[in-house]
Amino acid sequence: MPDTAPKGLKGLAYGGDYNPEQWPEEVWHEDVRLMREAGVTMVSVGIFSWALLEPEPGNYEFGLLDRAIGLLHENGIRVDLATPTVAPPAWFFRAHPEALSVTREGMRYAFGSRGAICHSSPAYRAAAAAITEQLARRYGTHPALALWHVHNEYGVPVSACYCENCAAHFRRWLERTYGTVDEVNEAWGTAFWGQRYASLDEIEPPRATPTVCNPAQRLDYARFADATMRENFTAERDILHRLSPGVPVTTNFMTALSQCDTVDYWAWGREVDLVTNDHYLITDGRRTHVNLAMAADLTRSVAGGAPWLLLEHSTSGVSWQPRNPAKAPGEMARNSLAHVARGSDGAMFFQWRQSRRGAEKFHSAMVPHAGTDSRVWREVVGLGAGLGSLAAVRGTRTVADAAMVWDWQSWWAQNLEWRPSEDHDARERADSFYEALYDRHLTVDFAHPEGDLSAYPLVVVPALYLTTEAAGRNLRAYVENGGTLVVSYFSGIVDEHDAVHDGPHPGALREVLGLTVEEFSPLGEGERVRITAADGSELTGDVWTEFVVPHGAETVWTYAGGLAAGGPAVTRHRLGKGTAWYVSTRLGAGDLDTILDAAAGDARLAPRAGLPRDVEVVRRTGETGSYLFAVNHTATEAKVPLDAHGTELLTGELAAGHLGVPAGAVRVLRIDDA
Ligand code: GLA
Ligand code: ZN
User: Fold this and answer.
1) What is the pTM of this model?
2) Which of 143, 381, 433, 514 could form a disulfide with 573 if both were Cys (CB 3.0 to 4.6 A apart)?
3) 363 CA distance to ligand 1 centroid (A)?
4) Which of 54, 153, 616, 648 is the catalytic position?
5) pLDDT tens digit string along 95-117?
6) Is 37 considered catalytic here?
C-alpha cells in the first residue's frame, strides 16, 4: 500500500507550483531563501518541463532538474514532482500530428498552447510512459521527493477528442462494455430516427450532426473519454508505484462544479493515493466563499472523507476571467484556511514566482511582480507562519452534519439537448441547495447516489435526472431506515442509458416519494408561481412546475397559480422510520430554507444557535484532538458561542464561553475538553 500523505512532511503543506526553468539560476537562490522566509514546505516542480527534459526524442537532459531539486533539498523543501505529460514537446507533435486532439466539428488543434492531447493516441501513450519511466528511475528514491504529480488537470482544456484513433478506441470500449452491437442498439435506442447499426465498425464518435445527436451515444462517449484519460493516469501511476515505492501518487483535480465538468471524480478518487484539488474563485458577484466551501466539501467527499490537499489556488487575482479583481486584504488566508477547515492538509498556489512571459503573466503568485515589498508577499509570509502553528491539524477529519447526493454522470446526461426547459440547470440546483445548507451552518458531505448514506440524518438530492434502479433502492432504504430525504424536481427520470424509466415519472423515486408526476409544465422566461401552505404562508417558485399525483405522500404546499394550480407543489412522505420530501418547483435559496427547516425538524437537526450569516464554523477531529475552525467572512467581529474551552492556535490565546473572530479573520480552537 503506498502512503497517502506527502512523504516526509511533518506539518501542513505550504507552497506552490515552482517553475525554475523560467528563471536564470541566480534567481533560484533568492527563491529558496524566500521560500524559507515564508515557511514553504513543499513545491510542485516540472509540470510543463517535457521539452526541457527531452529536447529531442530519446535524448534526456536532467541537469537543470537535478540542480533545482538538489537546491530545494538542501533547503529542506519537499518536492511534489510532476510527470510533464500534459505538455508534449513540439518535436513530438511534428512526428505525430495525429496526437493533437480533434473537436466535434472536425477541427484539429495546433501546437502552441498546452493540453491539446488525444488520449487514445498510441504514440502519445508510449511517449508519456517513456518519460514517466525516465523520471521515476532518476528521482524515484530521491530524498526530497514527497509526492508524484501526474499530468495536470485531466479534462482541462480538452476532455474528449473525436479523431479516427478515438473512433477505433471507442469501438473497443463499446465491445468491452456491451459485447455485441445488438446490446449497443438496445442501450442507445437506435430504433428512434433509424440509427440502427449492423456492426460495431459502423459506429463513430458523436461528431457534429445537423440536429440533436443520439443522447445515449453522447453520454457513453463522455464515459469513454473520461475512462480513456483515466487509463492514461493509471498507466503512469503504475510505473511510478513500481519504480518509486512508498511515494504517493496524485493528479490535481478541479472538483468545483463547472471548472471541470467532464471528469467523473467519484471514479478518479478511487485511483489516486492522495486526492488533490485546484480551486479558483469565480468572481461573478456571487458569494465566492460559498462556492469555495462547496468545492472543498466535494473534494473531501471524493477522497472518502480522508484528508486531501489543496494543490493550487491564487494569492490574489487570476487572469482568465473577463475581469480579474485582486483579493481583498486577508482574503487569501481566509480562503486557504477555509480549505484547511474542510479537510485540506495544507494550502498551495499557482504559482511561486509570477511569470514575466507567457500566457499567465497577469495571474497572481506568491512572489508578485511587485516583489517582496508588497501586501501579497507580507500576507504570504503571514499565512506560512499561521499554517506552521496548525501542524497538529494534519491527518484529522472534517465532521459533516448532512449529505448532498451528486453524480457527474447524471449531470452529463442532464446537460444534453432537448430537455423540457433550458432554464433548469442541475448545477444551479446543487449550488442553491448547498447555499441553503451553508446558511444553516451545516457542514455537507457529498455522496454518490449508490453510496452509504446511513451516517446522515438529512440527505438532499438537488438534481438527479439520471437515477439508476440501484440508486432508487438505496435512497428508499435510507428513508425506510429512518433518514430524512429532500428531493428536487426532475430527479429519478432516466436510467444509465438516458432511457425514461418504465411507468410514470419519477420512475426510480416513485416509491420513496410516494407520488407520481403526470406531466412537467416548465414556466416561461421570468414567469413565477406562488405556492401556499395551510397556515397561509407563501413562497415563490420559477422555471418549473409539474402535475404531481400523491400516492401516500401528503401535500404540504400547494400551487396557487399556473397550470398546476390547486395541485401539490411540495409533499412529504412517511415511509418506514423516515420521511421523504419532494419539491416540484424551483425555490430560491431563501424559500428553500423554509422547506429545509421543516425537513431538518424531521431529521432532528437542531439549527446552530447564535451564529451570524457568513461566519463559517467547521470541526476537524482525529488522533491529535478536536479543532474548531471559525471563518469570519463579514466586516464585523463575530463571537462564536462555545460549549467547550481551548487554545486558539493562531494567537495562542485561551478561549472559553465564546471565541472572538475579528472581521475577515480565521480562528482555530484546539478544544481542550470534550
Ligand atoms: C490551472 C493550472 C495552472 C494554471 C492555473 C491558473 O489550475 O493547473 O497551470 O494555469 O490554472 O490559471
Ligand atoms: Zn483522438
Assistant:
1) 0.98
2) 514
3) 9
4) 153
5) 999 999 999 999 999 999 999 99
6) no
